[in-house]
Every structure is written in C-alpha cells, then in structure tokens.
Design a protein that fits this description.
Length: 573
Amino acid sequence: MNSANNQGKIPGFIHNFMPGLEVFTRYDRSWLRSDLGAGLSVAAIALPVGIAYADLAGVPAVIGMYSAIFPLLAYALFGSSRQLMTGPDAATCIIVAASLGPLAGGDPERYLALMVILSLMTGILFVVAGISRLGFIANFLSQPILTGYLNGIALIIIAGQLQKLFGYSSEAEEFFPKLIEFIDKLDHSHLPTLALGLSLLAVLIILRRMVPRLPAALVVVVMGIVVVMMLGLDQNGVSVLGSVPAGLPSLHIPAFEPAVFNTILGDATGLALVSFTSGVLTAKSFARRNRYEIDANQELIAFGTCNIVSGLAQGFPVTGADSRTAVNDAMGGKTQLVGIVAAGSMLLILFFLTEPLAYVPTAALAAVIMVSAVGLFDFKELRDLYEVSHRELLLSVGTTLGVLILGVLPGVLLAVALSIAWLLTVMSRPHDGVLGRVKGIKGFHDRGDFPEATTIPGLVLYRFNANLVFFNIDYFRDRVRATIAAAESPVEWFVIDASSINVVDITAIQKIDELREELAAQGIVLASARVKQSLSKYFKNDWGVKRREVHAKYRFDTIKSAVRAFNNRSRER
C-alpha cells in the first residue's frame, strides 16, 4: 500500500496533524513482532520508573502510572518520531515539585489540583507553540548550558534520595544543606532499610552493566517486593509504597485559581522550554540513528497533546524519555505502535496486579531514581568540553552551580540568561578582517588566513562576519577606525564587503551614516560591495529605494567592481 493511496483515505489536515495515524494505515505486518517485543520491554522499564518518579514529584504512585501510560497513546498518534517514548522524566518531576510545593502550602489535595492545572497549561503552551511554528526553540538552550542544567538537576535528585536509601528522617530542602544533613545523620540510618537499599542498588548497577537488555528496574522492584513480603520488613520499619488503587482515573478538572495563574504560567513556560529542548534532542538523535527526519513543530504539538492527556488523567507533565527510547531502539522497535503496546501492557497491570505494588520498598524506588539520575549526569559532555572549549565548560559548570545554589526554577531562568549572554557575546565580537589578493587563488581573501595576501595602497577591503544590529554596531565602528589607523598607507577608500551581513536595524544604519560623515571629514570614502537586497525587507520599500539611490555611487555589486572604481578614481577628478 503506497503513501499516496493512504493519504487519499485520510483527510489532509488529519494526515498532517496526526502522522502516527498515517503510519498505521500503511503498517507492514513484518514489523509486528519487533514492535510487540519492544513494547513489552518499554513497559517493563516505564512502570517502575513511573512509580519511582511519582515519589520524586511528590504524588501517589498511581499518578506516576497514569503519567507513564496515557501520554504514550497520545504520542503514538501525534508524534513524528518512530522511536521516541514519552513519560515521566527526572528533570520534569523535580521542576514540578519545586514549582508546586510552595503554592500548595502543605495541602496534598491542593497540590494534586495545581499539578493537573500545570500539566494542562504546559500542554496548551506546547500546542500553541507548535501551531505557531516555534519548533526552532529546540535550539534556544545551547548544548553545554542544557547539559549544565541537567547535571544540576541530577545532583539535586541524588541528594534528595539519600534519606530514603539510608532510612533517616530529613528536614533540609536545599542541595548543600541536604549533604550536610546526610553527614550528620549517617549514624542514625535505619539498618534494615540501608541493607535492603544498598543491596538493590548494587543489583541494579550490575544488571544494567552485565545484562543491558534486561529490564533491571523491574527486576529490582520485584526483588524488593519479594524480600519485604518474605521477611516482613514492612513490620520492622522499612518504608513501603502502600496500597495502589486499581482501574482508570476519574476525569476531574480542578477549579481555576486566578491568584496563582501568573505563577503557574511562568512555571509552565520554563517547564515547556526545558522539557521540549531535552525531549526533542532525544527524538532527533534516534531519528538520525535510524536515518529519517522529525518535524520539530509537530513534536511541539505531540508533546502538547501528551501533557493535556496526562493532565486529564490526573497525571503530571511529561516529555521524551531517553532511557525508554533507548530500550525501544535496542529492541528493534519500528513504529509508534510500540507506545500503544507498552501502554496496553501497563493498563493490564493497573487493572489486575496492583496489590503486590503495596509492598514496593521506598528504598528500591530510591535506587531506581538514583541510577537514573546518574545516567542524567553527562560526564562525556563535560570531558569533551574540557578538551575543546574551556569557555563553554565554565558556562556549563556555572549553570550547574547556579541550579544547586539558586534552586531548580531560578536555574531555568539562569540557563536562558546564560544562553542569551553567550549568543550576544559571540555576535557582538565577531571575526573580521582585511581582504587581499592571493597569488594563484581567485577572489579576495582574509589576510588573517593568508598573510601573504597583497592589498592596494589607499584601499581597504573589509569584511565583518556578522549582522549589524544595535548591540554590535559600536564594536563595528571601533574596528573600522582601528583598521584605518593600522593601514600600511593613508586610506582613501574603505570598502565594506557586506556578503556576510544578512540583517541590519535602524540603529546600525544611523551609526553607519554617522561613520560615513566622520570618514568623509578625513577625506575617506566609505563604500560597500555585495550588499544583499534582502536587507531592506525590514523597512518600508520606498525608504529603501531612496536610500539605495542616494548611496548608489559608492555601492557596488562585487568587490572586483569596487576595486575597478577605486583604480579609475583619478580619471574622475
């Protein structure tokens, strides 16, 4: 069955809006075995992780199950990636807890109500961004800064699980106080909890290394249940999950709270930025590995529907899950059907096998979360930055320290601010150079690259490798003045090679006019070559036409024609 025929059966807007549906209409039965196996494997990982991350988000275990199940069904229809699995994410959960904890004021019911509002609002923001074609925001956080942010989140998560793994009570809320508290209370650890937790942690690490295809998290959780039930550890002070309600969630949309709207909107915006950036990077990496492309704008819509569905199911915000996506890819998953199989498998457990979940030890969940957090910490990226760019390494480490000191939510703002600062720094101090001729090579070339390049006395050919806008125009003027001062002979013409300039603003134009007058007073002509017509698209057309007419005498189509005009200038005198 070919794609054209399938598209004829599906209305165009549905075909474009729900790419997963189009995949199912042309499904090849030979893919079914791989998709079934991958779906069961994903479910074996996603279920214990969902339960563990529910604890991280500060909600009952069943909420984590809802958040692991229902978004998978939405993504199977709306997602453009054939491998990506959506669901609870460590960074997302810690942001949720940091966002809603202060607003809920210790009231569990209000916390759950605010969580649903946050999920729905995050989903709506995603969908609006997707319809508005804002998929480019996936590149808004640079990779080193995103790495630094997630590394900070990983450390906060690990510190937060120490009390559950060692079995002591905790009052500290921030990262460094938690570490100090850990040292102080280490000798107050609950020994049965510590023994169980460390044993399960060791098993989990060994299984992940020795048998990577085995659902190690599920094995550890099942082992924890068996040990607790056999030894009666829940009667000896070992904390367990408690009863988990079976069946589907009740559809309930909490009452809107205008007083917290602005706060939750800000939290949802930061959550959407971070979760989409990390999620779409996962989708892109696995799409590249399997040799196809994803649509970033469609991913925004898909993430939006996942979060809306999660909110309607009383779940928390979700994103692309790298560990479950890796399992899917390793097991040979071919299509979005994997998500449906995984969700269906977990639904069966939710209906018929919730009773054993009551005996899941909290220490087992802490072990799962800590191992996941260690996986979130990107040692390789830090090592690569150390070898390649110390400046970007400092930005990454600075972001991590900012998250640890300032907190999770201010850390989002810090990450955005550092990304903008890095962008402005790069663009405000771009490379520039004087051009000359190189023997045996056509054209004009930067003397920084070719020191042997020759120039014409009295003529400077200058290239500024960036757009000219308000934040770098003063640097541009300073560089022009410095270049003239450093010239080997008195300058008569200064020609700007504008081939690398794609955008100018009114501030830059005004200051270039001032520079033209300044140079004219010194007897220097300011000319331009290879100016793009598209530079005028941001201004009124008639104004652009008049400006081109005024400066037509010293505006040239090529550098060669500018050089010819300079050489012929004596004939015009």
